[in-house]
Design brief:
Elements: E1 5-9, H1 20-30, E2 69-72, H2 80-84, E3 89-97, E4 103-110, H3 115-127, E5 129-131, E6 133-135, E7 138-140, E8 142-150
Antiparallel strand pairs: 1-8, 2-5, 3-4, 3-8, 6-7
């Protein structure tokens, strides 16, 4: 008896956001204007070392951008008629997740060529449990590819 191999592949790669320029701009805008020189006033540069810039803020969580993953993937049962006929192939199922990781839709993205294998993969994708994608430390909805390889 052949067991199908299965794994989840993320459809969209997480995007890394470079905020270093935005932080520097915010620091520049937030600084007060230098005081105007008055006659007899001491030169500001001799009063001590300039203050160091504020450190770059850290994200609110340890990993701000995390792809979705299957936390409890279901292995599909290979339909007996498909097995008897020797059907093999890879099914790619598009799984739409809400911000909690709940499946809100699933459809065949790439077929094995056998509707029986495709339906088994589709059912397994719907029954699997997922953790959602995180972007900027927030759970977000997304679409992902659930891949099942029948051998």
């Amino acid at each position: 008896m052949m067991r199908p191999k299965m794994h989840l592949i993320q459809q969209h790669a997480p995007q890394q956001h470079d905020t270093s320029n935005a932080v520097n701009v915010a620091q520049t805008i937030g600084e007060p204007a230098p005081p105007e020189a008055t006659p007899g006033a001491q030169d500001q540069s001799t009063q001590g070392p300039p203050s160091s810039p504020a450190p770059t803020p850290k994200p609110a969580c340890s990993a701000p951008d995390v792809p979705a993953k299957a936390v409890d993937p279901v292995t599909p049962d290979e339909p007996e008629p498909a097995r008897d006929q020797g059907f093999t192939g890879t099914a790619k199922i598009r799984v739409d997740l809400d911000q909690t990781g709940r499946v809100v839709g699933a459809s065949v993205y790439s077929s094995t060529g056998s509707s029986q294998l495709d339906q088994a993969a589709l059912q397994a994708a719907r029954e699997s449990r997922y953790s959602p994608e995180e972007t900027d430390c927030k759970d977000v909805p997304g679409s992902y590819l659930f891949t099942v390889q029948f051998q």
